[in-house]
Amino acid sequence: MKTRITELFGIQHPIICGGMMWLAKPELCAAISNAGGLGNLTAGNYESGNDLRKAIDKTRELTDKPFSVNITFLPSVHITKELHQEYFQVCCEEKVTALEISGAPLDKYLGPDSVSRSQEAGVKLIHKVGAVRHATHAEKAGYAAVIAAGFEEGGHPLDDDVTTMLLTPRIRESVNIPVITAGGIADGRSMAAAMVLGADGVMMASRFIATTECLAHPKIKEELVRRQENDVTLICKSLNLQMRALKNKLAQEVLEVESRHGGLEEIISLISGERIQKAWESGDVEYAPLALGQSIGLIKEIVSCRELLERMVREAEEALAKVQRRF
Predict the structure, then answer these.
(1) Same domain, 108 and 160
(2) Residue 1 CB neighbours (<10 A)
(3) Which of 232, 230, 295, 241 is CA-nearest to residue 271?
(4) What's the pLDDT at 327?
């Protein structure tokens, strides 16, 4: 399946892994890239630019294929602007294939020259957006591609609340650079639907958790298989930082604090990165807010990254052919 995305990144399948705190590390990143997709390292997993550099080196020991690095410019307790600058500098020095930018645009957060610096280093910029206005800005600023991140996605969807079904074609008709669809993507059928809507590729995160190479605890992987699309909820809307997470004891506790107008000081300890990291590692699905999208309703089993990608492409091609025959 050749698209503008496979050509842009030099990959076999137009399937990309999104940023995942505590999970998008060298082992999973390399497995996805070796399977023909574009793996992802999440910079926020590392306490310094040097630690990120070591992770890049380790990934390159595990694969000789292209991979990306995610840098998220959102409010954080432990990731400062100076650390974000370190991440960016390391990625340019290491000449990674691509940078997936989410949150604030790179050119606004680190300055307009950051785009030219990345281009000079041969690092392709992808901006994850939830609105047409942000996609058109990315194109004008010089990004190589945009991710149309629909409201269904896990993590922090834009509070415009526009679904994948509408966002993908709206962005497709508004920009000339390649478009990647995220939000609700987990199998070949959803991949085919994204292509029909105008996408050049798809991005997934939740689905990659339920793979043999992901470092998440087996209990959590099993929970993803068991849960359905209505088993996620939005928290932290009162903080203007809404997060789609698994329905569990902790998420309910956050919602109760919000319902009585509790502030950040009450919520911050409940949603801390350390708490989330411990949950992924221990398998305690009730202990922390686990960022997951509605696509968990499409997760039926735990498979290897290679089997997942090859199956998705096969299913997508079959789905598209079936529609052609039907009409």
Answers:
(1) yes
(2) 18
(3) 241
(4) 86
Same domain, 35 and 121: yes
Torsion of CA 156, 122, 40, 37, to 10 degrees: 110
Report d(CA 168, CA 66) in Å as an integer. Answer: 25
Evaluated on CA atoms 141, 143, 145, 149, the torsion sign reads negative
3-state helix/strand/coil string of 128-166: EECCHHHHHHHHHHCCCEEEEECCCCCECCCCCCCCHHH
How many structural domains are present in the chain?
2
Same domain assignment for residues 69 and 142: yes
pLDDT, tens digit, for every residue of 125-141?
999 999 999 999 999 99
Q: Six-digit token pair at 279?
A: 């949950």
Strands 243-246 and 232-235 come out as antiparallel
Tell me: do 321 and 202 sit in the same domain.
yes
DSSP letter string over 69-135? EEEEES--SS--HHHHHHHHHHHHHHT-SEEEEEES-HHHHT-THHHHHHHHTTPEEEEEESSHHHH
Residue 156 shares a structural domain with residue 110:
yes
Residue 283 in tokens: 């398998």
Domain limits at 125? 4-216+303-326
d(CA 58, CA 309): 23
Average pLDDT of the chain is: 97
